[in-house]
Amino acid sequence: MLLRLVSPISALLSNSSRSKFPANCFHSQMGSESKSLVENKKSANYRLVNISGLKTDLLEINSNEPKLHVLLIPGNPGVVSFYTEFLESLYEQLGGAASVTGISHISQSKKDWESRRLFSLEEQIDHKISFIEQELRDVEVPIILVGHSIGTYISLEVLKRCQKKVTYCIGLYPFLAVNTASSTQTFIRRLAMSPALCTAASAIGALFGALPSELTGFLVKISVGKSWSSSAVEALCTHVLKYHTLRNVLYMAMTEFQTLPEKPDMEFIASKKSQIAFLFGLDDHWGPLQFYEEMRKQVPDSCLDVEREGHSHAFSCTAAGSTWVAQHVSSLIRAHVQLAKE
Asked: Judging by beta carbons within 10 Å of its beta carbon (0-12, 13-18, 19+), is residue 80 exposed, middle or buried?
């Protein structure tokens, strides 16, 4: 997703078959449970909350009789409206049996609530833990985390510290370790490490964001958003192309590269393999297949899949990607719940 952030700025300036890789996850059949999807369709509602004194954007779909609570932790940028279609589709696929919440990262929003203060990866992790302790304190049903990209790393850290509340964690296109072989990551790292370059890139992005909305939307659409949904284009134009958001995106990226190891934490993954599942992308430098293969060998019987439907790391920016990944996640959740009953 971060590459999608850098690409539009530079650009504006100048279905294959199912995975052939072995899948170790048991997926329950949707079958008759899919018949009532239309009946369970709901729109996500926006809510602004204070978490430990910090303004936080939420997207929520509340079930009347929830058996689960699913919490989405986004990638970087952590603008939750990028995931609108995904959250709505996931709620549908789960038959309305789970409440679904998406949480933004601090100061990656339309308004500069925190007066240009910058927040590190560790502060974003603490923020998600505080949210669970504050907003989900009285939730009596199991909490399932769904993390995307760096949100997967955050989800695993939350799982380590909130094991009494969180029962399952699903990582989508996971960014768990620095990929030293990726030229894209090298470029972003150099950009994020330079205060001068971060300031310049953020100012340029904000300049485009200040253009009339129709023009900004058109430029985004013809550059990187040709297949993007209207909600994703709007999220980029109204939330990401802001000086405070871009500075926070790049500052968080800098601390990601400083914090993440060069290999995923296989020891923890192995110790919690019954509570963790991952979906890797076929051509994704954030979560390369090298990590998938290493995990498959070092953590036998772990729940791993590779998506080969032609969706990208930024799956939530397209309607097709959002729907397919929501179906995959709902299948994992159903299988986990079924196994927990046995």
From this structure: buried
